[in-house]
Automatic annotation (TrEMBL):
It comes from Thermoproteus uzoniensis (strain 768-20). This is Oligopeptide/dipeptide ABC transporter, ATPase subunit. Pfam families: ABC_tran, oligo_HPY. Residues 6-256 form the ABC transporter domain. Coiled coil: none annotated. PROSITE patterns: ABC_TRANSPORTER_1, ABC_TRANSPORTER_2. SUPFAM superfamilies: P-loop containing nucleoside triphosphate hydrolases.
């Protein structure tokens, strides 16, 4: 059994004033294995952050959870009382660093005080133990704890803030850590440092990491497995080398071919033709069919289920009859 099983997760954003409903997640199925680094990639608007919010139970109106389960170690965390989830799961078993959260650090508090605060909020009263752990975690992310723990947030660079947030999120030793676009606003050198930090904490602590990004080119050097989202669903998931170098889903092939940094020859880069579907309209058939070079009759009629093909899963009628 996987550590975390996401099943048929559906979320809408309801805007009755506009008479609109955005179907942001249309039935996401995804497993997170113990101790792995799972890359969750997809274009802007494909539903990555909404998925993280639903799993962390922080969806806010106009978002609404329609249905689905998130089973962590045998327990459906979406059906728990909010107070039980907050006390026993958030931070303790599953932690999250949101997209663009560098400014979440309190400007009036030194870095170490953030650790004390978080520890106190979760019943870690022993300050010397919290400090010991803060040093260990900050060092694990490649920063000098002697220096960094004394600093105020404005004295940290963007990359340092991101590392501090990662260290802080690990204070209560979660089994799963979701990082939403942790490297997006950073230059390439800083980005490489963050990736090293993530690999280091994954290896030393055994924490499973879900790394959300729109940047597929980060995957080969980072992730054990990759899941690709398109229009509110996972369309392909499997070991990194397979998904990146021999993708099965035509969307994933098109996505990989559209990325200059994965290929030496920039001239061979091909943009994906067409546009992603509107998430407001009802989607009939496969969401990728209007852009797909292999479209068949059935693709316009029905949406393919995510089905096993060797050691991965893919939602495409080219590979599976259902
Ligand atoms: N507060 C909101 N109100 C209405 N629609 C929203 C809201 N937040 C997100 N959406 C819509 O839900 C869909 C999924 O958005 P989401 O932010 O989850 O995508 P994403 O994959 O994280 O994109 P990005 O790469 O830009 O962060 C999009 O169509 C988006 O426009
Ligand atoms: Mg996002």
């Amino acid at each position: 059994m996987a550590l975390m099983e996401i099943r048929d997760l559906r979320v809408v954003y309801r805007m009755p004033d506009l008479g609109l409903e955005v179907k942001a997640l249309r039935g996401v199925d995804l497993d997170v294995e113990r101790g792995e680094i799972l890359g969750l990639v997809g274009e802007s608007g494909s539903g990555k952050s909404t998925l993280a919010h639903a799993v962390m139970r922080i969806l806010k109106p106009p978002a609404r959870l329609v249905s689905g389960k998130v089973i962590l170690d045998g327990v459906d965390i979406l059906s728990l009382d909010q107070s039980v989830f907050d006390r026993e799961y958030r931070w303790r078993r599953i932690a999250y660093v949101p997209q663009a959260s560098q400014n979440a650090l309190n400007p009036t508090m030194r870095v170490l005080d953030h650790f004390f605060d978080t520890g106190k909020a979760h019943g870690l009263g022993d300050r010397s133990e919290v400090e010991r752990r803060a040093r260990e975690l900050v060092a694990m992310t490649g920063l000098d704890p002697e220096r960094v723990l004394k600093l105020y947030p404005h004295q940290l660079s963007g990359g340092m803030k991101q590392r501090v947030l990662i260290a802080l999120s690990l204070l209560l030793e979660p089994e799963v850590l979701i990082l939403d676009e942790p490297t997006s606003a950073l230059d390439v050198v800083t980005q490489a440092g963050i990736l090293r930090a993530i690999k280091q904490v994954n290896k030393k602590l055994g924490v499973a990491i879900v790394f959300i990004t729109h940047d597929v080119s980060l995957m080969p050097s980072l992730a054990d497995r990759v899941a690709v989202m398109y229009a509110g669903k996972v369309v392909e998931v499997g070991p990194t080398d397979g998904v990146i170098y021999e993708p099965l889903h035509p969307y994933v092939s098109a996505l990989i071919s559209s990325i200059p940094s994965l290929y030496a020859d920039v001239a061979s880069v091909k943009p994906i033709r067409g546009e992603p579907p509107s998430m407001v309209e009802e989607i009939r058939g496969c969401p990728f069919w209007p852009r797909c070079p292999y479209v068949k009759e059935v693709c316009r009629e029905r949406e393919p289920a995510l089905s096993s093909v060797d050691n991965r899963k893919v939602a495409c009628f080219l590979w599976s009859p259902s």
